[in-house]
Amino acid sequence: MKEQEIRPQVGWVGALHWDRRLFDSLIPLPDGTSYNAYLVRGTKKVALIDTVDPSKTEVLMKKLASVPTIDYLIVQHVEQDHSGSVPAVIERYPQIKVLSTPKAKGMIVDHLGVPEECITPVQDGETLSLGERTLEFIHAPWVHWPETMFTYLREEKILFPCDFLGSHVATTDLLSSDQRHVYSAAKRYYAEIMMPFRSAIQGHLEKLSHYEISLIAPSHGPMHDRPGFILDAYRSWVLDPPKNRVVLPYVSMHGSTWRMVEHLVGALVDRGVSVEPFDMASSDLGSLAMALVDAATVVFATPTVLAGSHPHIVTAAYLSNALQPKLRFGAVVGSYGWGGKAAEQVMGLLGTLKLEWFDPVFVRGVPTAETFAALDRLADAIRQKHEGL
Ligand code: FEO
Questions:
Q1: How high does pLDDT run on average in the chain?
Q2: What is the DSSP letter of 106?
Q3: Atom 3 of ligand 1, nearest CA residue
Q4: Is 109 a residue whose pLDDT tops 90?
């Protein structure tokens, strides 16, 4: 595959990774991903914005084979899926000047072994003329790392926002033609890495509202030629209050906890509350993360294993806490064989969210009429709290 022109003198030289199935050895990538790198040519200078994952260095270098000179390598973000091919680019173009935020400079040295003298820090708002093409650098700390920046091509009004506004999708369509699919993939990506940094993300959205943007060219997934689509989606995920919705991660070993889940789902729906149950023995963590973006309440349903919660629920609770969603309320329900402290353990894992907790509902053995009545009371309490959202 050759370089593909996206605007006059602006080309996509990224790589598709169709069969990548996990990110961070944790988060499923149902649609693979892409590592987007862009060449911007002025009348005097040429700049490369980002590189690709080290596993795809060869793809990038083949696309650059016919490019005799690149003057600037703009490293917007040091995470290796974008910076991993920086050493290969420097080897091919030894005179290239690496540009990054001041914060990124030391990280590029430490993560990639690039000599410090090759790197020139750029300030927030600084511009770089390539000759009839002007790049503006926009510092954007905490998209999910502290060193990130965006780049804005003034003449074409193209924003290159790195991970921000991107999606893990491998597709030969450079533009986001299937908006429904891209919306879902972008929400999943936001949930997985950006949701914990909502206040910073809000700041980035505010900063970008002062720019006229005709094309958003992120570092993963297709580009957006209708910028309002993805910017409005982000505004809703970040700013809207939580919705009348319960996320319900559960595991059942012998059926007792499942019967409680089944009853609670019905009781909530009967009261007009939406529910998204996830069987954590088989659901992927990305789906759970995505559901947490909008929900007001999380209910963990767990059997008791060795006096504690089932390990899959421990993972779900740990991740829910780490992702810092807008959740306001929580509950733990489940069953046990002879005893244990599963509820206390789960609640202890969500300390930073400062949730308002409902009373746990636990049963020894199989659920009884009393158990179901307690679940009905829990559903009543959830509905009542959600009325105040
Ligand atoms: Fe796609 Fe934070 O790297």
A1: 97
A2: H
A3: 79
A4: yes
Nearest ligand 1 atom to alpha carbon 219: 1
Contacts of 370 (CB under 8 A, 6+ apart): none
What is the band of 178 on the pLDDT scale with cuts at 50, 70, 90? confident
Residue 53, ligand 1, Cβ within 6 A? no
Closest residue to atom 1 of ligand 1, CA basis: 163
Which CATH number is associated with domain 4-239? 3.60.15.10
Cα-to-centroid distance, 285 and ligand 1 (Å): 18
Residue 250 three-state SS: strand
User: To which residue do tokens 């894992």 refer?
Assistant: 349
Cα–ligand 1 centroid distance for 152 (angstroms)? 19
pLDDT for 25: 85
Q: Where are the domains of the chain?
A: 4-239, 243-384
Question: What mean pLDDT is predicted for residues 257-265?
Answer: 98
The Å distance, Cα 63 to ligand 1 centre, comes to 22
pLDDT score recorded for residue 179: 86
Q: What is the CA radius of gyration of the chain?
A: 24
Among protein residues, the one whose CA lies closest to atom 2 of ligand 1? 79
Answer yes or no: is the C-beta of 81 below 6 A from any ligand 1 atom: yes
Position 254: which residue type? H
Nearest by Cα to 93 from 117, 58, 115, 67: 67
The predicted-structure confidence for 231-245, as pLDDT tens digits, reads as follows 999 999 999 999 999
Is the distance from the beta carbon of residue 77 to the nearest atom of ligand 1 less than 6 Å? yes
pLDDT for 209-223, tens place per residue? 999 999 999 999 999
Average pLDDT over residues 248-265: 98
Its CATH class, for the domain covering 243-384, is: alpha beta
CA 204, 208, 209, 215 torsion-angle sign:
negative
